[in-house]
Structures are given as C-alpha cells and as structure tokens.
Automatic annotation (TrEMBL):
PANTHER family, A to Z: BIFUNCTIONAL ALBAFLAVENONE MONOOXYGENASE_TERPENE SYNTHASE, CYTOCHROME P450 FAMILY 4
SUPFAM superfamilies in alphabetical order: Cytochrome P450
Protein name: Cytochrome P450
Domain of life, source organism: Bacteria
C-alpha cells in the first residue's frame, strides 16, 4: 500500500477484474469525503455485499434522507454523557474478565481483545445480565460471520447465491445472529420495563433523556426509563426513539442497527488494543510512563469512569496504534457521475478507495512513519500534523458514529489490563495482515501480575 503514494494522488488499480481509484493525497481525499461528497456516494461492491446480510443499518444504508434520519436517531446513543453512564459497569466487566487470567499462562491476545471488546460492548449496549448463552453464542458466531462476509465480498455476486455449503452455512449463522439480537432486544425491553421511573432526574447534558416514546414498535413498554441504571444499556435510546414523521424503528430496523453496531465495534477496537499491547511489550519506556500515569491517577485503587479524562499519555499511545495499524485500511465510495479528480478522469459508477493506513504513513506528514512514537501526539508537536491525514475514523457525513464509544472502551480495557498485568510476547513478532482490519497474524502473550504503586511508594522508590 505504501508504494501507491509515489504513483500519484489518484492511482488506478484492479480489484479482480474491476478498476478502482485509490486517493492518496489528503487534499484529494478531503474532496471525496467532505467538500464534493455528492459526487462520491457511500457504496461499492463491498457495501453491496454487506447489505445483503446486514440490511439497512447505518453503515450500509445509502446516502440520503434515510441515512440522515438514522444518524439523527442514533447520535444520542453515542453522546459522551450517555456513554459515561455505562462507564463503571464496563470497567467492572473488564476487571472481572481480566482478573480471571492465570499468571504465566500464554494467551492469544488478539482473540482475548476481540472477546473482551465484544462482551464489554454487549454490556454497554444491552445492559447487564444478558443470559450467558446469548453472550457465548455471540462470541462463537462473530468470527465465523466476519470470515464468511469477507468471502461474500470477494466472490462474484452470482457465486454467493449458489446453494453451496459455505453460502448456506453463512446464511444460517447470520439468521442465528439475528435471532440472538432479538433475544438481547427482548431482554433489554424487559429490563427497562422493570426499572423504576427515573424521568425525574436524568443525567445532565444527555440528549438521550430528552423526551422519547413510551410505546415500542414491536410491543413491550419502555415506560419512561432512561437506560441510566447499572442494568440499562445504550440501545434504550433506539428502543424509545420516535421520529415525528415515520414513528419508532421497526423490529427489522432495530435488528439491522444492532448487527451493524456489533460488526463495526468489535474487530476495529479489538485489533487496536492487540497492537497497542504488543507495542507496549516491546517499549519499556512507554510501559513505564503508562504505569506512572495510571499510578498517579488511581494509586492502588481500581480505575473509575471519571479517571478516563486524566490519562492523556495513554490516549496518545492508543492514537499512535491507530495511526500505525489502520485499523480500517480500505474504505470505498462510488462516483454518482463522471468526475475529474486532480486531473484524473473517473467514470460514473466507479469505486473510489481511501485508505486511512496509506494517509497515516505519509512521510510528508508523519516524521519517521514506521516508528511507534506516541509523543508525536503531544499537543505542541501534533500542531504540525495535517488533520486530514488522520483518518482512522473517516471524515465527513459518514464519519464513525462510534468514535467516542471506541475511545471510552479502548481506555477502559487498556487501563484495566495495564494496571493489573504486564504482558510479555511469547510468539514471534506479529506481522500485519490486512483483512477486515490490519490485524496481527499471531500474537501470543503471557501475563505476569503487577502491583500498582501509590504516590507515597513512588516517592520512596524512584525508578
Ligand atoms: C477503533 C475503533 C474504530 C475504528 C477505527 C472505526 C472506523 C470507522 C471508519 C473509518 C468509518 C467510516 C467509514 C466510511 O468512511 O464510510 C466508520 C463508520 C462507522 N462506525 Fe466505526 N470505527 C471504530 C469503532 C466503532 C464503534 C465502537 C462503533 C459502534 C459503537 C462503530 C460504528 C460505526 C458505524 C455505525 C459507522 C457508519 C457511520 C455512517 O455511515 O454514518 N465504529 N468507523
């Protein structure tokens, strides 16, 4: 991918038999994503293939009024104050899961991070107390569904419709996933209905609490519950959403949104965490500074939601992992008409591709782009980085809606793991594999316990 930049600002490549145009210059990519967005619609063969199984969720819905409506309905779910209401429950969940690791026993860290981000996301989305079998089935289905979906996007459309065993198996898994999502939605509705009325004192500044219907589209009363209790979840916003023109979301629409959120949220965040832990394991100075920051903020008590805003160095370490490893490395648009982009004619209906990975390795923007250097995000140094060259979450009207949630989850998981464990690499150094995300090919790490130091102890024993 790195070599594309040297071939020009717009590079024509072949994906199978089809031509696609990769934009490599940040100014040109900004035209595609932000300033000339009407000529570059969300779409392309990958999105078409995803839509077959995931329906019209936010990520696959075509540009236009329906997308804007869904985006408006979903925005309150990912409002910072609303996410914060789930923070301590997420922390408790991550602590319980990582406390169960055994000292000195090697673990597959990539798998761990994906499992952890999935289970934490479920707790955040649908509330606590999801029946154990639902979570376990989600856990075992998701990797196979992701693999099956990639297969569907690579093969020609007609092959994916043949009655082949692999196609049938993928359809069965997606149907099972939808059934599980239904169970999670019903579970959440039941929890909300059982909650005491909290409408008298909603969290300040959280639009998720403004109004909301008491009727649900597919039956079940939500009362005036807000999903604010430790048992409630972020999805309550959608369950109670009521568009003045089209009414509440149907069961099918709720399913489509849940499946979209699950697929958007897990591997991206899990991959980022896996790479971050790998980089920490091979950079003693970075690890020492993380420990120092955490111990200063928390001492020897467990992490709390309100600590997350006091961990700027940890944020820089995570941002650097996102810069270096993608994780979304290839995203497509489709031209709605013939366009000329920086002197390159592109026909109507062609795939235009942007790659956060390519932009984030641009040596004109990032000094020594192959070096893992969290300090490049230190505020003074970061001023020289062109913001259009950090595209981990995309840009413009299709920018990641889950960015704030991703930051919360990333900080919670990393802080909890680093506070409790030191991880040592026990496999060969991983190689990046670009599939859905840029993931490590193999990442085995062994945990050793770590005891946090209080401020007094640090003063007594300076490192
Ligand atoms: C490190 C974590 C994440 C990364 C790197 C990431 C990356 C991205 C990118 C690049 C896009 C834009 C795609 C485009 O331009 O077409 C996107 C869209 C999206 N992301 Fe994320 N994402 C992350 C986490 C999440 C999470 C946690 C959620 C859900 C809670 C989520 C849900 C979505 C959705 C629904 C969209 C579609 C938005 C729309 O089309 O309006 N993502 N993400």
């Amino acid at each position: 991918m790195d070599s594309l930049r040297s071939q020009g600002s717009v590079v024509k490549i072949l994906i199978g038999p089809t031509a696609a145009y990769v934009v490599t210059d940040p100014a040109v990519t900004r035209r595609v994503l932000v300033t000339e967005v009407d000529a570059f619609a969300k779409g392309g063969k990958i999105i078409d293939a995803l839509r077959v199984f995931f329906g019209d969720g936010l990520a696959t819905i075509a540009d236009g009024d329906l997308h804007l409506k869904h985006r408006r309905l979903m925005q309150p779910m990912f409002n910072k104050a609303h996410i914060a209401t789930r923070g301590d429950v997420m922390i408790g969940h991550v602590r319980a899961a990582t406390d169960a690791w055994a000292e000195g026993v090697a673990r597959d860290t990539y798998e761990d991070m994906n499992d952890l981000t999935l289970s934490t996301f479920l707790v955040a989305l649908f509330g606590s107390g999801l029946p154990g079998h639902v979570e376990a089935e989600f856990q075992s289905l998701m990797p196979a569904i992701m693999r099956g979906t990639i297969r569907q996007t690579i093969l020609p459309g007609w092959v994916t419709k043949l009655p082949l065993p692999a196609n049938r198996a993928h359809e069965r898994r997606v149907a099972r996933l939808r059934a599980l999502i239904d169970q999670a939605i019903d579970h959440h509705r039941a929890q909300l209905a059982a909650e005491p009325d909290t409408s008298a004192g909603p969290a300040a500044g959280c639009p998720a609490h403004a109004g909301g219907s008491t009727d649900s589209p597919a039956g079940g009363s939500t009362g005036s519950s807000t999903g604010n209790s430790p048992e409630g979840g972020l999805f309550s916003t959608l369950l109670t959403a009521d568009d003045p023109e089209t009414g509440p979301l149907s069961r099918q629409q709720l399913q489509d949104e849940a499946i979209t959120l699950l697929t958007g949220a897990i591997e991206t965040t899990g991959t980022t965490l896996a790479w971050t832990l790998y980089e920490i394991s091979r950079n003693a100075e970075i690890e020492r500074r993380l420990h120092d920051e955490l111990d200063t903020v928390c001492g020897d008590r467990p992490l709390r939601q309100e600590d997350l805003s006091s961990l700027p160095y940890m944020r820089s370490v995570l941002k650097e992992a996102m810069r270096m490893y993608g994780p979304a490395w290839l995203v497509t648009r489709t031209t709605t008409r013939q366009v000329v982009l920086d002197g390159h004619p592109i026909p109507e209906g062609a795939d235009v591709v942007y790659s956060p990975y390519v932009h984030q390795h641009d040596p004109d923007v990032y000094a020594a782009p192959k070096a893992f250097d969290p300090d490049r995000w230190e505020p003074e140094r970061a001023k020289s980085i062109n913001r259009a060259s950090f595209l981990a979450f995309g840009d413009g009207r299709r920018k990641c809606i889950g960015e704030e949630f991703a930051w919360t989850e990333l900080l919670i998981v990393l802080a909890t793991v680093v506070q409790r464990w030191r991880l040592t690499l026990t496999s060969a150094p991983p190689r990046p594999q670009a599939i859905v995300t840029v993931k490590p090919d193999k990442l085995s790490m062994t945990p050793q316990p770590r005891v946090p130091r209080t401020t007094e102890e640090k003063a007594e024993q300076p490192v």
